[in-house]
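We were asked to recover a plausible sequence for a given structure. The inputs and outputs are reproduced exactly as logged, with field labels preserved.

PROBLEM: sequence recovery
POSITIONS: 280
GIVEN STRUCTURE:
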């Protein structure tokens, strides 16, 4: 499947993170990207701050984006109804002009909590995909969960998977599992960042300079994640590897257990999953 033109409705961090590797890989030509945002002020700011490096022009006429055969929908959730109205207007205009081939196509939504049923109801002429990427996609180390409407073809599914594979690991999941996926992978970076910050604060309290403490905390987390992944270790195995009898690590682990860190993290993931269901 090819995409001679690509509509992008909303141009936040995630949309830009997806666009750059697409352009670099030549999957979409810069001239074929139709990126639109809600206001002239946003278009001007994005053009000055971000999109010069992408070589893109940013507009405010949504009809331009909705005439493309593939659209990435990356607006804020409160702008969803407005986007649906623009899509319907573009579709009716295309049909009136006898351009049926531009009246609908493949719609890839990255809106958190918006389920396929609602997407398909709001965009009835489109084949809808629900994508849940996480912020490490910005450095091409992301995780993305994908769920597809029944109307999406196998060729389209493969193409969407290849798109998100450019920014990390891709998992095709039943939509019912996406709330849990989001809670772990999309909310998880914030939980990890909080752990990193707290570890650095502890190191400062123990006597390290602030800048060094932050760098060491970040590198410790990154190195630990790499070790777990590359050696396919269960977290408990790694914990036991560094916990000598009567040593420093087991003393620290005891303090964490007394403080309820394990339970707090479990509850954080469950709370995020529940909130995702509520937003839907």
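RECOVERED SEQUENCE:
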């Amino acid at each position: 499947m090819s995409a001679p033109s690509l509509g992008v409705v909303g141009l936040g961090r995630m949309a830009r993170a997806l666009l750059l590797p697409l352009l670099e890989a030549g999957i979409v030509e810069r001239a074929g990207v139709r990126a639109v945002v809600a206001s002239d002020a946003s278009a001007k700011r994005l053009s000055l701050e971000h999109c010069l490096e992408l070589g893109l022009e940013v507009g405010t006429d949504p009809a331009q984006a909705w005439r493309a055969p593939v659209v990435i929908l990356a607006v804020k959730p409160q702008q969803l109804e407005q986007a649906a109205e623009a899509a319907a207007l573009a579709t009716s205009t295309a049909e009136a002009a006898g351009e049926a081939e531009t009246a609908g196509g493949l719609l890839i939504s990255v809106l958190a909590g918006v389920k396929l049923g609602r997407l398909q109801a709001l965009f009835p002429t489109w084949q809808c995909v629900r994508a849940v990427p996480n912020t490490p996609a910005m450095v091409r180390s992301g995780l993305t969960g994908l769920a597809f409407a029944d109307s999406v073809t196998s060729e389209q599914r493969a193409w969407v998977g290849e798109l998100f594979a450019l920014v990390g690991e891709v998992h095709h999941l039943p939509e019912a599992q996406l709330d849990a996926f989001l809670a772990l992978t999309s909310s998880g970076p914030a939980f990890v960042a909080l752990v990193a910050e707290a570890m650095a604060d502890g190191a400062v309290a123990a006597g390290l300079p602030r800048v060094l403490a932050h760098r060491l905390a970040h590198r410790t987390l990154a190195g630990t994640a790499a070790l777990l992944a590359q050696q396919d270790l269960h977290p408990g195995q790694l914990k036991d590897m560094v916990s000598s009898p009567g040593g420093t690590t087991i003393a620290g682990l005891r303090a964490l257990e007394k403080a309820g860190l394990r339970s707090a993290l479990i509850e954080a993931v469950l709370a995020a999953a529940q909130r995702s269901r509520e937003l839907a």
